[in-house]
Amino acid sequence: MQRRLTIEQSAEDFKAIILEAVQKSNELECAVYLQITRGVAVRQHLFPAAPVSITMTVRPVHAIENEARDKGKKAIFHEDERWANCYIKSLNLLPNILAKQTAHEAGCFEAILVRDGYITEGTSSNVYMVKDGMVYTTPLSKQILSGITRMAVKKVTESLGIPFIEKKFTPEELLQADEVFITSTTSEILPIVNVDGKSIGKGNPGKLTMEIYHKFKGFILAD
């Protein structure tokens, strides 16, 4: 897709702005959300002739408690009703929000989205399954958002000598997996032990998942 939003600031410019905001927030553990839009314009479906609008929020972030991670979380399957360009991180989040709310009302942490019979990702996470010592995740395409933590997991598995396979898989295959986990910036690496009321493996966080998580945390602390 052709880039149609002109951003004059460089990556270094944004890094400086983000560091300044974090320092002013006085937060030790925080999440930074950066948003770039075309700003305010008359509703006529045309690009406004004005510079882009950049906003940023810094808020305290609360890590998932060790007890919750040690027990794992539950998820549901949900039809992926999003638009065709999910690789773009946009503000068009209504389908994600509705699916996440459905999961919450079912007593679950996440909704695992399914499109044309195959798993794409979660409402705000990437999805992985472990089978026979190998990690599987959906290949990069327009149907998923390539998360930063996803890239980190790929590096971690390579460092551990664990095969990282980008391959489509079905809900039925996921339910037969030895382990399942999801990743996101705030959840990091989170075991999923039950999907749609069915236990994954032995119903506990898997050994390989936790090995990847601890190695991942080591990488973060090293940075």
UniProtKB/TrEMBL annotation:
Transmembrane segments: none
Alphabetized UniProt keyword annotations: Aminotransferase, Pyridoxal phosphate, Transferase
Pfam families with a match to the protein in the record: Aminotran_4 (PF01063)
Cofactor dependency: pyridoxal 5'-phosphate
The keyword Protein biosynthesis is annotated on this UniProt entry: no
InterPro entries: Aminotrans_IV, Aminotrans_IV_CS, Aminotransferase-like, BCAT-like_C, BCAT-like_N, Class-IV_PLP-Dep_Aminotrnsfr
Top-level taxon of the source organism: Bacteria
GO terms of molecular function: transaminase activity
PANTHER family per the UniProt record, alphabetical: AMINO-ACID AMINOTRANSFERASE, D-ALANINE AMINOTRANSFERASE
Family from the record: Belongs to the class-IV pyridoxal-phosphate-dependent aminotransferase family.
Protein name: Aminotransferase class IV
Species of provenance: Bacillus xiapuensis
